Amino acid sequence: MFRDSPIIRWRHYNDRYRLVGYRCTKCEKAYLDKKGMCTCGNLDFTEQEFSGVGKIVAYTQIHSGPEVFESKSPYCVAVIDLKEGARIEAQVVDCRYSDLKQGLEVEAVFRKFYTSGEKGVIHYGTKFVPKY
Amino acid sequence: MSGIVGWGAYIPMYRIKAETIAEVQHADANAIKAGLGLTEKSVPGKDEDTATISIAAARDALKRAGINKKEIGSVYVGSESHPYAVKPTASIVGEALDIGNTYMAVDTEFACKAGTATIQINAGLVGSGMIKYGLSIGADTSQAEPGNALEYSAAAGGAAFIIGPDKESVAILEHTCSYTSDTPDFWRRAIQPYPSHAGRFTGEPAYFKHVTEATKRILEKSKMQMNNFKYVVFHMPNGKFPLRVAKQFGVTKEQIELGLVVTKIGNTYSGSSILGLAAVLDIAKPNDRILITSYGSGSGSDAFIFKVTDKITKAQGKARKVNDYIARKEYISYPQYLKHMEGIHN
What we know:
The structure holds 2 protein chains of 2 kinds. By secondary structure, chain A is mostly beta strands. Chain A has one domain (6-130). Chain A is built from 2 helices and 8 strands; from the N terminus they run ααββββββββ. Chain A has a 5-stranded antiparallel beta sheet with strand order 6-5-4-7-8. A 3-stranded antiparallel beta sheet of chain A has the order 2-1-3. In chain A, β7 (105-115) and β8 form a beta hairpin. The longest helix of chain A has 5 residues, at 6-10. Chain A starts with 5 loop residues before the first helix and ends with a strand. Chain B has helices at 18-24, 29-36, 50-65, 89-97, 114-128, 203-222, 241-249, 253-256, 262-265, 272-283, 312-316, 322-327, 334-342, and strands at residues 2-10, 14-17, 40-43, 72-78, 104-108, 133-141, 156-165, 171-180, 186-187, 196-197, 231-234, 289-293, 300-308, 330-331. Chain B has 2 domains: 2-170 and 318-342, Thiolase/Chalcone synthase (Peroxisomal Thiolase, Chain A, domain 1); 171-312, 3-Layer(aba) Sandwich (Peroxisomal Thiolase, Chain A, domain 1), CATH 3.40.47. Chain B contains 13 helices and 14 strands. Chain B is α/β, with parallel strands linked by helices.
């Protein structure tokens, strides 16, 4: 996730910029990242764009994160169940750690992740904010 | 003809009070508040910049427009704080919105009027039949050198407009014109982090002359008078300049106060006058006429006359309003403010 290559990020625009994931054609389980095989054993998936609305399942606060996030520390990270069923991990911003709780409704926003040093590209993607 | 098919706004939630800045700069907060006609300003989050603000506003504009986003034929983003010196903000916006790849795109810069310039460009493209819909955005995370007078007003925010055929519009563009001259009142040289300005010269020969001349010309062109307009918006570098122009033209308090968002969030530069327009569209009624005149240092003003249609009522409730963003706020300290502004570069 903290790689500097602009190409690696470019390959993930679908799931980082727009929350486009996958749904198993057999059991309909949803994933953000592409899986080789569903937990039901099926190998076929269809693409689906998720709405970006979800609920917090678990959360924590990072005080000493990777170097690229130092300027944002401390920051909150949560496991989120999206309305469509996919479970993802993401930063939750525009809130205090004390605002967070299990079951809190959140919505996706487009934000800056980090920059690759002084001269590198700016990496963007999806974070979440408490629903307002 | 063309018009606004959908509109959206975004203002970051963080605010800093004039008192907080004045305390650090050993300045008289009351004198500054009285001089600038504002009490606080919006500050971007540590992970917000012109691209993220543009996308947030554009997503709301799409909700209101209810169009097939793949039919958007152009994306133009006006700002003086584009995240990159070389690499367009417009293509980041297009990618995040998933509008496909068949669209024209470019970033514009003309100080605080870079956003309204994109509305004129798209109106021309839609009117000529070259595209069906065009996305026009003005957004900024304005820079101000610590200790400079600009520090009290340079704010963050933006608005987005989908320009399309008049038959689908919530507000039809009836007239537009511009007034431009080479006036060195405010500038930022290449690679410089903060802008410079010519002090009081930014007033009379710059802001006032251009806003007044563009407004006079559009009134002449349209053969209208100020009492034809329900709402009037003049660019808002502070809370006092637009009121002085309003007085000069006989604009009433009722006509101007709704769009005067600067008093609550500061000057959002390329987002300033168009956030005022968005605030007006949020509550305008069919057949209302709106006059808006922007100003960009360097210098120029774009004036527009819009006539609201009956399509607006349905669109208003489909996304958050400017006042929703104004009401959502958290005050920060001066050290936090410095960290937030540093975030623009890191």
